[in-house]
Amino acid sequence: MKRLLIVIAFLIVFLLIALPFIGIAVGAFEQGAGPFWKALVRPEALHAMYLSLLIVVIVTALNAIVGVYLSLELVRGTWIARRIKPVVNALIDLPFAVSPVIAGLMIILLFGPDSLVGAFFEGHGAKIVYAVPGMVIATLFITFPLMVREVVPLLQEIGEQSEEASKTLGAGAWRTFFQITWPSIRWGVVYGLVLTIARSLGEFGSILVVSGNILGKTQTATTLVYEDAENFDLVAANSVAFVLGVISIAILLCLEWMKKRKEAHMHAH
Amino acid sequence: MVVKILASQAYKSASRSLLVAYLLLLVAWPIVTVYVKGFSLGWKPFWDEISGPIAWKSILLTVKLSVVTTIIQAVIGTLIAYVLVRYSFRGRMLLSSLVDLPFALPTSVAGLMFLTLLGPSSPLGDWLNRIGVQLLYNQTAIVIGLTFVTFPFVVRTVQPLLEQLDASEEQASYTLGAGRGYTFRHVVLPAIVPGILAGSMLAFSRALAEFGAISLISGNLPGKTMVVSVFIYGETQNFRPEGAAALSAVLLTLSLIVLWAINTLTRGKGRLG
Amino acid sequence: MHIEARNLNKSFGSFHAVRDVSFQVEKGRLVGLLGPSGGGKTSILRLLSGLERPDSGDLFFDGKLATPLSVQERSIGFVFQNYALFKHMTVFDNIAYGLKVKKKPKAFIRERVSYLVELMGLAGHERKYPQQLSGGQRQRVAFARALAPEPQLLLLDEPFAAIDAKIRKELRLWLRNLIDEFKVTTIFVTHDQDEAIEVADEIIIVQQGKVEQQGTPWEIYTSPASPFVASFIGESNVLAKPVELRGFPELADHQANGEWLPGVSVLIRPEAIEVRPADTTYLATAGEPGRVTRTHFRGDSWYLEIDTGKLQLFAYQSTKERPFQPGDEVNILIHQMALFTPGQSRMLENRAKEDPLPIFI
Predict the structure, then answer these.
(1) What is the pLDDT of residue C79?
(2) What is the distance in angstroms between the Cα of C72 and the nearest Cα belonging to chain B?
(3) Mutate to test the interface with B, among A101, A223, A230 (most CBs of B within 10 A)
(4) Which residues of B touch A24 (CB under 8 A)?
(5) For an interface test with B, which of A13, A56, A249, A253 has the most B Cβ atoms less than 10 Å from its Cβ?
(6) Is position B44 within any domain?
(7) Strand pairing partners for C301?
(8) B-chain residues within 8 Å CB-CB of C85?
(9) For B79, which of A9, A17, A101 is closest by C-beta distance?
(10) Are the Cβ atoms of A20 and B117 closer than 8 angstroms?
């Protein structure tokens, strides 16, 4: 019975996850390494990957700083009344419930050329929607909860006592943060960072809507894959997808490794 | 001097207000906007939008297929969680990592995966074609895509509950004469039901919202294989923001309800006490 | 049910937990598997239950081969160390579980469970969940659950490990009475020797996967088969190096160059040491002079550390006498000591007691 269950489990995972992924590798190299490489160094491909990278860096940096600060305030700050807490909780979770297409729509409604904000910026020659800023905002929205949800439970678990002890010994807020708080939440933050990177790199639906998918201008790696596939240029699509896939696996392994370290770190306390 | 300012009460409350403003701005305001836009022309136009045949069918289709996917996930997710927790075998770590892959993979890549695998140009696709099994451009394709992206949810919510369930409870059941099946039904299942429920709801909510994986493999046939998210996308491409917003409002409401249900069920990690 | 184990062997990976274990248990007896942690006792228990399968060897229940039987078929009751109560079932449902599995009629189940609930003193708690009960109550539920289907063999894994010391004593008596009432063959695992001695009809000492000795508590205590048993049961003074002691001339035969011969151990039980004031007149020459270095109060006795110059020993003193103080000069009379040589163990009596004028050869 045990054997049977294990075999079934492996079968399901293999058919659903492993096999399709292998399909990409096969599809990418179907015509050999030459076309694979050519697909990757196309100007639009290079630009798309550059754009993806840019967005990842900006969003991750912003989320890191704001996310940690927000978590600290939310857990340690006593100013949040009981009644507001569930609301704040709900707000943090909201982006998870929103379909990426809707997220894209929201940005268009808020910052598009017909909106107040959008019109203002357009007047000064800066585009938000159908340009990089809009894509950054959309990705910010989507990845916003990731850091907070990692750091908040950590902060709650370690409690305030170490920090209070630090204060009684005369340490100021910055020192307390860097020497006491930070080492305890470090791994959670890093984990949240990696999650953010994975999510912002992989974001597709909202980007598709917000960016207009303009070739060479607002196309990211993920939307390039989509476009290639729609044009039935499968080798090209698979090539870029392969690169994305490999990066995803690398991130995944990173996450798994960190999960183990995070657990070991916590248990050491 | 700067330090004094930073430490003063005024600065503190100012920075806190800024915080709340950031939260609201980033999260609440955009969502409100969708509803506002959806009803911007009034109730009747809103109603007309969503009751249009294609729109309405897409809603039904999305809900139906999400439910199907959720049920499938509930079963295989529990199975895989049980195998991962209770048994040790070679390749267990590999299996566990593969379970997480759908989390890390961009959704358009996921869609492409199945397109490549099941498409006519692949050996598998070709063979399937010949034996008359169609797994692309139909509802089955959508379910396959949805099952892929929701894969980790049930497994990861059931696992911790299974780990908490002492193996000795199952053993005690055996010593009292119960076989494996009886033990599973009466001892294991009751303990993991909350996890199955929570995971199922997460999976359902994700399935409702999914766009990337489906858009490539479903064929997007209006009224037949077009899900709500794809319909909304179409509306935005056709510069019909009111239509897009109207349907978004419906989808959002559905998602929010599920989210609320999940929150009431699991008062756990990430909550502020 | 009569139990026989023959040449049981079990390894977990490279760890050989059970080595060639054989023993027999008479029907209706209460037997303790006693030994240090990690010694294999729990493994033996689990082999008896069927939760583990032996790599080699056989089990016989009432003379019939039981090794191939599954856990479910063995008609055993098992009380786990952590009780393993079904957390999502009430007390009543926990106890009724084994009966429901056997598809007994509802009325019968209700009767039997009520009887056990009464017996265990759990009346009024039937609708409660395990989390709402105290440790002691949970344990009683575990017992009731195991006994409900009328097992032929009851297996207990360190039943009192999680209980407070004070309540433990009461529970030992309770267990004894319970087993007497149910008359079911019971085997329990413990690393607490006092518990084994007080509760069990027979003790099997297990160390490093092997059976060291099986016998009644009295037999084991008074005639330990090996130095390990002797030092495990009760406390002993170990003579690490040979010394000359009045009244024990045999010791000289077992030493060479200031060390004991290989395989030789000498142990002295503290009860075998009588501590008298230095000026005692009775059998004064049969004893050794010494001085008390430290004393510890033990509640029902004094624990004395004594230095005779040649040896450091410990002994007990009753609280009825005037307690010795550190620094007091004393005369210790060693009544007997245990001598272990490879293949033999004997008790040596103090010869000097018979002959007040010691004559050494």
Answers:
(1) 92
(2) 4
(3) A101
(4) 109, 112-113, 116
(5) A13
(6) no
(7) C318
(8) 169, 172
(9) A9
(10) yes
Contact C360, C249 (CB under 8 A): yes
- Per residue of chain C (361 residues), give pLDDT as tens: 888 999 999 988 888 888 999 999 998 899 999 988 878 889 999 999 999 899 999 999 988 898 898 888 888 999 998 888 998 899 999 999 999 999 999 999 999 999 999 988 888 899 999 999 988 889 899 999 999 999 999 999 988 887 777 778 788 888 888 888 888 999 999 888 888 888 888 999 998 888 988 998 878 877 778 878 877 777 778 787 788 887 788 888 888 877 888 878 888 888 888 888 888 888 877 888 888 898 888 888 888 888 888 888 888 888 888 888 888 888 888 888 888 777 677 778 888 777 555 555 4
What CATH number corresponds to the domain at position B98?
1.10.3720.10
The first and second tokens of residue C27, run together, are: 């029907």
CATH number of A42-231: 1.10.3720.10
For residue B23, being part of any structural domain is answered with no
Q: What is the DSSP string of A93-115?
A: HHHHHS-HHHHHHHHHHHHSTTS
In this prediction, residue B269 carries a pLDDT of 46
For chain A, domain boundaries: 42-231
**B and C touching (3 or more beta-carbon pairs closer than 8 Å):** yes
In sequence order, which ranges of B119-240 are alpha helices (DSSP H)? 123-130, 139-149, 151-164, 167-175, 180-183, 189-209, 212-217, 228-237
C-beta separation of C321 from C243 below 8 A:
no
Inter-chain CB proximity C146 and B179 less than 8 Å: no
Query: Among candidates A140, A164, A139, A157, which has minimal Cα distance to A71?
Result: A157
Residue B27 belongs to a domain: no
Contacts of B160 in chain A (CB under 8 A): none
Residue count (chain C): 361
Chain B partners within 8 Å of A77 (Cβ): 16
Q: Is some CB atom of chain A closer than 8 A to the CB atom of B236?
A: yes
CB-based contact A202 B258, cutoff 8 Å: no
**Partners of residue B177 in chain C, C-beta under 8 Å:** 72, 98, 101-102, 149
How many Cβ atoms sit within 10 Å of the Cβ of residue B254?
21
Q: Are A142 and A105 in contact (CB under 8 A)?
A: no
By Cβ distance, the residue of C84, C101, C146 closest to B169 is C84
Residue B175 covered by a domain: yes
**Using an 8 Å Cβ cutoff, are A200 and B106 in contact?**
no
Per-residue buried b or exposed e for B168-201, using 16+ beta carbons within 10 Å of the residue's own CB: bbbbbbbbbbbeeebbbebbbeebbeebbbbbbb
CB contact under 8 A, B176 and C82: no
Place of tokens 């409002």: B249
Q: What is the ipTM of this complex?
A: 0.81
Domain that holds residue B78: 53-266
Largest CA distance in chain C: 81
For chain B, the domain total comes to: 1
Token couple for A165: 């002890």
* Confidence (pTM): 0.76
A160 shares contact with chain B (CB less than 8 Å): no
Determine the 3-state secondary structure of C51 from DSSP.
Answer: coil
